[in-house]
Amino acid sequence: MVGVQAEAADIAAGKTLAVRCSACHGPAGIAVTPDAPNLAGQNEAYLSAQLTAFHTGARQNEMMSMMAKPLTDAQIADLAAYYHSLPAK
Amino acid sequence: MVGVQAEAADIAAGKTLAVRCSACHGPAGIAVTPDAPNLAGQNEAYLSAQLTAFHTGARQNEMMSMMAKPLTDAQIADLAAYYHSLPAK
């Protein structure tokens, strides 16, 4: 099922996945564009729910819908755990 | 027009408005529930765009749609400026 956290998230895998996100969300989760959110230190459940919403289309954003479309539940969990693990600015 | 920042936002007014948000987003913008986002230090343009999306219905969330419905553009700008001004954890 979408959004269910089957196994413990893999922060290292999330870090590798996050390279594709850094153009907007920055190399350390502090957004480089003012209309993108800072993700560093954000709540893991919230991040996971938003990525799942972009993946399913429940939440719409041109860029994020495209980025989240191919992600698996495990990849969403890894990304959420990775960004949650980063120090907020 | 919705989302247009007519005058400089009023952080003090935003702080007063934010009392209604603290049940989920915490007294200092650090969420008290895991499925709500931390708002402290978040990008002002992003916060304003999300509140506007909840206000117009472009973004859906039961609680946030209800909270954002009555907000004016000026109140949205004040809330965004207030939360942006808070230190991220």
Give an account of the 3D structure.
The structure is a homodimer of 89-residue chains. Chain A is 49% helix and 0% strand. The relative contact order of chain A is 0.27. The first copy, chain A, is built from 5 helices and no strands. The longest helix of chain A is centred in the middle third of the chain and has 13 residues, at 44-56. The first copy, chain A, has a single domain (11-85), classed as Orthogonal Bundle (Cytochrome Bc1 Complex, Chain D, domain 2), CATH 1.10.760.10. In chain A, helix 1 crosses helix 5, helix 3 packs across helix 4 (62-68) and helix 3 packs antiparallel against helix 5 (73-85). The interface between A and B is medium-sized, with 19 and 19 residues.
The major pleated sheet of chain A works out as: none
Termini separation of chain A comes to 34 Å
Q: Flag low-confidence runs of chain A.
A: none
Structural class by secondary-structure content of chain A: mainly alpha
Number of helices of chain A: 5
Task: Please write the CATH class name of chain A.
Answer: Mainly Alpha
> Biggest interface pair, residues each?
A-B, 19 and 19 residues
Oligomeric state of the chains in view:
homodimer
Quantity of strands of chain A, as a count: 0
**CATH architecture of chain A, please?**
Orthogonal Bundle
Helix content of chain A: 40-55%
Helix and strand element order of chain A: HHHHH
* Structural domains of chain A: how many: 1
Tell me the CATH topology of chain A. Answer: Cytochrome Bc1 Complex, Chain D, domain 2
What's the CATH H-level superfamily name of chain A?
Answer: Cytochrome c-like domain
Q: How big is the Rg of chain A?
A: 12 Å
Structural shape of chain A: globular
Q: Overall mean pLDDT score of chain A? A: 93
